[in-house]
Amino acid sequence: MDLPPYVALALSALNEAGFSAYVVGGCVRDFLMGMPPRDYDIATAARPEQSTEALKAAGFAVHPTGLQHGTVTAVWRGTPMEVTTFRSEGGYTDHRHPDSVRFEERIEEDLARRDFCCNAIAYHPKIGFIDPFHGREDIKNRRIRCVGEASRRLEEDALRILRALRFSATLGFQIEEETKKAILQRRDELKLIAAERCQAELSRLLLGRHAREILLGYPEVFAVLLPEILPALRFDQRSPHHRLDVFAHSCLALSLAPQKLCLRLALLLHDLAKPLCFALGEDGFGHFYGHGERGAELARQILHRLRFDAKTISRVTALVRWHDRSLPETASGVKRWLGKLGEEGFLDLLLFKRADVLAQSEVGRDEKLARIGACEGQIAAIRETGQCYSLKTLAVSGSDLIRAGFAPGPGLGRMLSSLLDYAIENPDENTKEALLRRAKEQSNG
After folding, report:
1. pLDDT for 96 beyond 90
2. In this structure, are residues 354 and 369 in contact, taking their beta carbons and an 8 Å threshold?
3. pLDDT on residue 99
4. CA distance 406 to 425
5. What percent of the chain has pLDDT over 70?
6. pTM summary value
7. Domain check: are 38 and 76 in the same one?
8. Are strands 174-175 and 143-144 parallel, antiparallel or unpaired?
9. Is the pLDDT of residue 24 over 90?
10. Mean pLDDT (the chain, rounded)
């Protein structure tokens, strides 16, 4: 491995102080996959106080970030790196934290405690790769396999269930049969894991190139976190516009969207209210009146339960709420949508709708895509010409109206809204002079 100079320096400092040290984990896996490592972790025989002394002597700033687990963080010119003592772990009564940690002398004992064989590889510049569990073979064969007994490994920390699925979704690795069996058997133990930790793994999984395959392959696992998907599984939409059941359609749409979390979350959740809103019409087709609004509330509850931040919840629920509404056909209509959703929000909605349409049947597809493209073109023209679509882009403000003699209060807000409507319909009139004149005419009228 061609290690960055600061990593090589840390290894050298520990080795010269008499302690064996290796880079371990994800950075080794990424290198063996031909990917640039994002960060580096070091495992060493040195105890935390010994690591601290050796690294400080080499010029690192060292912080005691996890002493109970033998971890310190070494910082080199703003770049952090975790340095952890070789360790083995006792039982996991809470399915999350080891009941006890014992410091060890050999790297092999440290590797034996890790989750998957592809992550249980160490590297030393002079010795080479230490790979007691044949992780390099798993990487070559693109396989996820637990270290040791799969059921026991997942019982120790149930979050490893989601980690296995996330690695498969992002790396394109297949999950080995015994590991797959253990994932399905132990899936209910995900209920013991903090929502924040599950959310972080789920978010990374959904951005993976193979997220659709994993969602469709393990619905019973995801239903532990998202029981709301159960009615959507194999739910026949009875519609000429759809060729897939609700959940399969949502997963396909998600895979066709850009790797942007709010988009992919919204596409996963957008039709979950359909089974709740289903009505069979006289035409023999299924109808789902109000499922956008009801789905938005369902999405809000789910995202809140999984501890997503307020900004993400707001963006996702807006996309779900608006996803089934007909797009505007006029420039003024586009500007009104821009005013309600903002430019980023409206553009995200169009990306959402394109993925949604492509995941439907071919009925009306060309017309739907043409309408989406027309809206994108109108937004570009509005942006290029600087046309008004919100109070922020209106040429007058409340302060301007007050200086012109209008009284503060609710009437001022109504006047601004009226001027905004006027400027949207009459783009050339969005000047301070024209709008103040218009305001005076309205007040006199």
Report:
1. no
2. yes
3. 64
4. 23
5. 97
6. 0.88
7. yes
8. parallel
9. yes
10. 94
- State whether 58 and 128 are in the same domain: yes
104/53 same-domain check? yes
* Structural contact between residues 38 and 54, judged by C-beta atoms closer than 8 angstroms: no
User: 146 - beta bridge partners?
Assistant: 116
* 135 shares its domain with 217: no
Burial of 128 (0-12, 13-18, 19+ CB in 10 A): exposed
- Evaluate if residue 90 carries a pLDDT over 90: no
CA 257 to CA 352: how far, in whole Å? 7
**pLDDT at 203 exceeding the cut of 90:** yes
Contact 177, 185 (CB under 8 A): no
Count of the separate structural domains present in the chain: 4
Examine the domain organization and report whether 70 and 123 are in the same domain: yes
Final residue belonging to a domain, choices 141, 158, 174 = 141
Q: Which two structure tokens, joined as six digits, stand for 299?
A: 């999405």
Looking at 112, 141, 170, which one is the last position of a domain? 141
pLDDT at position 32 is 96
Same domain, 244 and 379: yes
What is the residue range of 54's domain? Answer: 5-141
Residues 341 and 237 in one domain: yes
CA gap 190, 433 in Å, rounded: 63
Residues in the chain: 445
CATH number of the domain encompassing residue 19: 3.30.460.10
Rg (CA), the chain: 28
pLDDT for 89: 73
Order the strands of the 71-76 sheet from edge to edge: 61-66, 71-76, 79-85, 41-44, 21-24, 122-124, 128-130
Same domain, 429 and 374: no
